[in-house]
Design goal:
- The strands form two sheets. Strands 1, 2, 3, 4, 5, 6 and 10 form a seven-stranded mixed beta sheet that branches. The chain has a three-stranded antiparallel beta sheet with strand order 7-8-9, with helices on one face.
- It is 52% helix and 14% strand.
- The relative contact order is 0.08.
- The longest helix has 37 residues.
- The protein has 415 residues and is an alpha+beta fold.
- The C terminus is likely disordered.
- One of its GO terms (biological process) is intracellular signal transduction.
């Protein structure tokens, strides 16, 4: 007779096993119902499908192996005594997820781009309306492996929670949790670095002065997405580790890229304001002139001031939740930069020679930056930030002349 605690334990082990079956079925479905027909019907090229599906094929035998092992140790009555040793031996195989997860940003971008093709869109819509899809689109299926990966620590902790301390499986389960947490952390790190590199390679600089070492040195995109300015123009904003980059999404050589809209703003110098609903002017008109209150909600402001150089951007998120995400990410980034700066100052104060050297280096760097900024101010006086439309098409209805830097008064970001 099983105790209530053991019943809970068996349920957790069964959930692990059943999840493997469901995963294998979905991965095979993605190949059979999406990949193979699109290749056969020439809806997409083999190269495009390889980019979108990545190494998905290689994940199927990996999970079939775990499922086989779990079934082999299952007793005739359906219960399982010990599962930890199986997991300890199998979990290192999850390192093969590295390449699959690192490819997801490029895969998603290409899939979204191909959806503009009516043949692709029509095929995917027919699949979505078919019973086999369970109302899930193709990307839902392609994202299932990543979702499964991050769920393993939760599943194993649930098994451990219902495993008595004196159970022979207890130590192995704890070891398995440590293994999978390390693997997930490492894959998350590499995936983040891959995503960051992907977007850095797609930044378009209007001039050399916009390039910033803070962007080059970034290894993680803390947050990014579409926001609107106070004129309703769409911008794509990237928050890297130490710099905020405001861009316009553009198309260049049939590839989605991001043209810098202003000079990058160092996070350490960035001023963040949470604006109350109705506090922002829209299109240069006072808010009272607008009857559509939806347009003046969910704004926040980022600004930057260094001497006579000023930037101020009122940015609108899609909803309250999205706005709060941006506020939290920016605050966390500022806190991280502040902590790092404090550590550097502490180290400098402990080493007089280092302090002298750092101060001299810092002064030289600041002098070079000020010289560069003066050159930019002079060059901007007779130029604008518009793009060469012969090479790039802009996803905006209209543009106004804008300058990376303006002096003497604050400006709101305009397109």
């Amino acid at each position: 007779m099983l105790t209530s605690k053991e019943i809970k334990r068996q349920e957790a082990i069964f959930e692990l096993s059943q999840g493997e079956e469901d995963l294998i079925e979905d991965l095979k479905l993605a190949k059979k119902a999406y990949h193979d027909p699109m290749l056969k019907l020439s809806i997409m090229s083999e190269q495009e499908l390889n980019q979108i599906f990545g190494t998905l094929d290689s994940l199927i035998p990996l999970h079939e192996d775990l499922l086989r092992r779990l079934k082999e140790i299952r007793k005739p009555d359906g219960s399982t005594d010990c599962v930890g040793h199986i997991l300890v031996g199998w979990l290192p195989c999850l390192n093969s997820y590295d390449s699959y997860c690192s490819n997801q940003v490029a895969a998603k971008t290409l899939l979204d781009q191909k959806k503009q093709d009516h043949r692709v869109q029509d095929f995917l819509q027919r699949c979505l309306e078919s019973p086999f899809s369970r109302k899930l689109d193709l990307w839902n299926f392609l994202d299932i492996p990543r979702s499964r990966l991050v769920k393993y620590p939760l599943l194993l902790r649930e098994i451990l929670r219902h495993t008595p301390n004196d159970h022979p499986d207890q130590q192995h389960i704890e070891e398995a949790i440590n293994i999978v947490q390390g693997i997930v952390a490492e894959i998350n790190k590499k995936t983040g670095e891959s995503e960051c590199q992907y977007y850095k390679e797609r930044l378009i600089y209007l001039d050399e002065g916009q390039k910033d070492s803070l962007i080059d040195d970034s290894r993680v995109v803390c947050c990014h997405g579409e926001l609107k300015n106070n004129r309703g123009a769409k911008l794509h904003v990237f928050l890297f580790q130490e710099v905020l980059v405001i861009t316009r999404a553009v198309t260049q050589n049939e590839q989605l890229c991001y043209q810098l809209y202003r000079q990058p703003i160092p996070v350490k110098d960035l001023v963040l304001e949470d604006l109350q609903d109705g506090e922002v002017r829209l299109g240069g008109s006072i808010r009272g002139a607008f009857s559509n209150n939806e347009r003046i909600k969910n704004f926040f402001r980022v600004s930057f001031r260094k001497g006579s150089q000023i930037q101020s951007h009122s940015l609108q998120a899609n909803d309250t939740f999205n706005k709060q995400q941006w506020l939290n990410c920016i605050r966390q980034a500022k806190e991280s930069v502040s902590c790092a700066s404090s550590e550097v100052r502490t180290l400098d104060s402990e080493d007089p020679l280092l302090t002298s050297s750092s101060t001299s280096s810092s002064r030289n760097r600041i002098a070079r930056q000020e010289s560069k900024l003066e050159q930019m101010d002079q060059s901007d006086s007779g130029s604008d930030c518009s793009m060469d439309i012969s090479e790039i098409s802009i996803d905006c209805d209209h543009m106004e002349q804008t300058y990376p830097w303006q002096t003497d008064k604050e400006i709101e970001s305009n397109v």
